[in-house]
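Chapter summary example: a protein plus NDP.
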Amino acid sequence: MKRIALLGCGSMGTQIALTIDSNDFPAVLTHVYDASKAASSSLVEKLNNKPEIVENSHLLSSQHIDIVVEAASQDAVKDVALSVLQNKKDLMIMSVGALLDESIYDILSDACKDFKKTIYLPSGAIAGLDGIKSVKSELESLSITTTKHPRSLKGAKFFENSDINLDKIDSITTIFDGTAKEAVSLFPANINVAALLSLTGIGSKQTKVRILADPNTDKNTHHIEASGKFGKMTFTIENFPDKNNPKTSRLAILSAIETLKKYCSDEIQIGT
Ligand SMILES: NC(=O)C1=CN([C@@H]2O[C@H](COP(=O)(O)OP(=O)(O)OC[C@H]3O[C@@H](n4cnc5c(N)ncnc54)[C@H](OP(=O)(O)O)[C@@H]3O)[C@@H](O)[C@H]2O)C=CC1
Ligand SMILES: O=C([O-])CC(=O)C(=O)O
């Protein structure tokens, strides 16, 4: 039975916790933390097996647990990831954009080796990473075009220095066209999937990102194109947004749960 600590009790964290609580796989949620005390208390109230709420994020990995599951923010990853590994615990990261900072990536990669622990990055809101991983050495171009409703893009850092008024958009509009490196820092809660693609493929400066706002869509759509000596791959994933957080797709939550299930279960493993 794996012992799990949860960092982030928002939309994704809540659904991960409810699944663990349903005894769907051999795991127990023992400790939780969220910057919002109200979010952690509200989550614990919903659970039959009540985890302890710790006083700060660093207290999660000092407990008797196997893995810390991060579903909070890129800042949370930057703050705690190294100490989780130093405390000899595994780590699952959903706010993957944090790893596009090369110094953070290198420090965490070395720490995994030094402390013999693993960082898990679920495929999140996209599909096709297995194929891209296999053709990595022959990949020449990689791009993702993400289309979301304007309300799903609200609050992104990008708009602090932009004249675009999301409330006034009445037809499909290109909001951003650039590299994955720029995209994850300007849209930290919207385009972690571009970080996953970058880390799997040809890096964050070569991976191209377009973000479109479409006032007539009810989906978060990710269209991925990869080409090179191997041929060409395209993937289009039309996700329904989570009902509590329109930035986050339902698939991202299911992917986190599936990765955790795989971590906790001794079963036949399918796929790359
Ligand atoms: N890899 C992928 O494919 C995907 C990744 N994501 C990412 O997963 C993460 C979770 O998503 P979701 O649950 O929908 O987001 P929510 O905003 O619903 O929940 C995040 C929770 O974490 C809290 N939080 C933020 N920063 C910290 C911190 N430093 N320490 C402790 N708690 C913190 C927030 O509190 P407060 O509200 O007070 O800030 C909030 O309660 C996000 O970073 C999101 O961008 C989402 C979709 C796809
Ligand atoms: O859930 C999605 O569709 C994508 C997302 O928010 C992210 O990658 O951060």
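Key point: Residues 124-125, 189-193, 220, 239, 247-249, 252 surround oxaloacetate ion (ligand 2) (CB under 6 Å).
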